[in-house]
Amino acid sequence: MWRSLWPTIDRFSLHHFRYIVNQLREIRVVDKRNREVVLDLLQSIVEIVTYGDRHDPAIFECFMEFQVLAEFVRILKIGGNSGIEAPLLQYLSIMIQNVENEHAIYYCFSNGYINSVISHHYEFDGGDLIPYYVSFLRTVSGKIGRDTICLLVKVHQDTAISLPLYDEALKFANHGEKMIQIAVRALTLNIYNVADEMVYQFLTTPTASAYFSSLILNLKNKCLHVDAIINGVKESFHEKKRDLLSETDRILDDFYYLKDILCIPEQRLNKLVTENIVNMLILPMLLTLLNNRLSNDTGLSAITCLYVLCRLLQVFDGTNLVNVIGSAVLFSFMPPNVTDAAESVVSARLEQVNGLAVCYQEGEEMVDLQHEGAENFMMNYVLKHSLEFTELSSCFDSSPLENSENEWGGIFSCIFSRNHSLMLGSLMLLFTVADSKDLHYQLAAKIGFSQVKTASEMIGSTVAGHIQKIVNQLLKVLASEPPLSVPILLHAAWFLRKLLVFLDQKLEDNDCHLFKTSYEVSCGHLYEEFDRCWFDHIPDVLKSEWANCKTALEESSQSKDPFFLLELASIQNPPSVFYLTSQAIPVLLLIGNGWLIVSSYLAQSGKRYPSDLSLASFGSEVALGSGIPCKIAFSGAGTRDIYVIPIAREISGKLLLVERHPLHSRKGVVIAIAPLAGLDPKIDEEHPTWLLVHLRDFEPRLRSDETKTLDSHTSLPEQGRWILGFLSAKDCKAAFSVILEETRKQRSFVENLVAPVLEEKLFK
């Protein structure tokens, strides 16, 4: 009753706001005793200001009149060790984030209050202050525009000397916390997008532009870490792959961040970033490849260089970087034996590649970059000089090819290398360059992959004239003995299929023979699997791998992940022959276009023909029929009288151990089941009434130390074995013969099922 007589307080009223502000202004020291009181006052102010921004303009006028932001700065300075910095920054972030009135935002950024909060000396050692601070900086950056960013710039004699928001944020650019890195990069992009003339002059000064150099240096360090992971000897393949995926994801993050910067329509910023990418990343990597070195002066391997360059081309679409790389690749098509000394070759390539960067600089100086058509003028100017370099070596392009890959320099020495990872990586780079939609038409014609289709049009192209030799090199990989790893076969087939589609013609006689040989080798390995314990899984594996191979081979070079290069460099032990063969045959069939027969095979392999016995499971009742009586001893269960019933129906084969049913003399209950394939029955020499059968799993185990490869050489005794004791040696031999006969029937069905895939007429 008495409470109703007491006047209520409107906590969002102007009067209450003045009261709260006056309470805050009376605070002279902040310590642990009054910390909570101060925080309540700050929170109330933020809530009322946010409310007033939408409903009561008088509140923000009072906010400006009392200079409340100055009070925030004062509280921050007298906070001492009270731990008030984090919540104060959080409240400021909430207020700035929710203020929508442009006049209010302009006031918040004026008078240097925000810069005072940014430049305050914080103790970041330990604790959780950094996330609050960086979040505050990002919130501020999200509210700035071209009209307000100048309010945060420190100016001396009409020149920007500092941008605290930018400078302080960059101190956390390499922070270990991923979310903090993302926030800093979002902040920088916000600044780049709204920067005015004065700010861009500041960003391109040596002090501020050092950030871009640092970004590329950190990127190179990540590449070196990739090398270290690949060359590590203590890690398993799965551990390596996990670490490689993590590190390459970080590299990709850097690439997309740089791409976002280049998408900002500011020529000075684009030029600065592009120069750093070209001079500090692309050119050193290209020189590693063009000079036929396994690593460069910084220790970066050729494989990692190829991966990074391919990824860079896939990410940086819409830029001229592809023409830089394409021109450099063209310069390298010159056999080293045409020069007097190897040193002059290296010097010439250095001059050619660096000359391209000079051409870019000259082209930019000759034309107003802001003028319409300036970019096309500059590109034509650069390509003119690029193609002049190429024409100088045109006489070498027409020189006869030698058989020794050691006589070739540049990227050809990689393509014809005995290192399969290096060969596939260099082809990946070449295909990525050729398939880029941003490749200049003159360079595309020189490479000759995407723009050239017929043999007559291939005259004058630099690479197309050597395709037959490249095809031969890939076929040698597919036909190699002993077989190489599955990824190498699969990716070699991908390149081979691309080249065959490009040639639009049949293989030469020698290559056709090599192709047929590689197919016969794969078939031979597959036939050997019929003598091992997993032959009943061959159709299913072929069917599943067919789909995988078809998807992989139809992938475009722009969408193909070059991560496979790092995987190839990390694989140490070859997978089982069975898995190699199961992938090699679908690969060869896809290239050879054996579609019709294989399609019918796939349809047939999906059919199943069930029967009572073939569907029997543990505890099922089955007819004893022609079962052979015997005894078996199970550990902990003693000796039991059973019947042995081997049964093969189509692709399915089982060995049933059946115990007589207590109520039905002609029926039994299944007490154990083993796969028929892999039993490998043997009669004990010392006990002719004993039959030994080995046991394997029903489903194949996948190796865990590499890619998912089937271990066809599983040690069967590790799975267990049964010793079956028969009443007589005659019964033992009868059981032995029946098991072999049923196994033969199962194997015969599988062979007939797979036979259409292995017929030579597919390639006639």
Automatic annotation (TrEMBL):
Has UniProt tagged this entry with the keyword tRNA processing? no
> What keywords are annotated for this sequence in UniProt?
Autophagy
Which is a Gene Ontology cellular component entry for this protein? Golgi apparatus
Which Gene Ontology BP terms does the record give? autophagy; endosomal transport; regulation of autophagosome maturation; vacuolar transport
* Keyword field contains Amino-acid biosynthesis: no
Where in this chain does the record put each FPL domain? 42-192
Q: Name one Pfam family in it.
A: FPL
Q: Which domain of life is it from?
A: Eukaryota
Full protein name: Protein TRANSPARENT TESTA 9 isoform X7
Q: Which organism is it from?
A: Coffea arabica
- What lineage is on file? Eukaryota, Viridiplantae, Streptophyta, Embryophyta, Tracheophyta
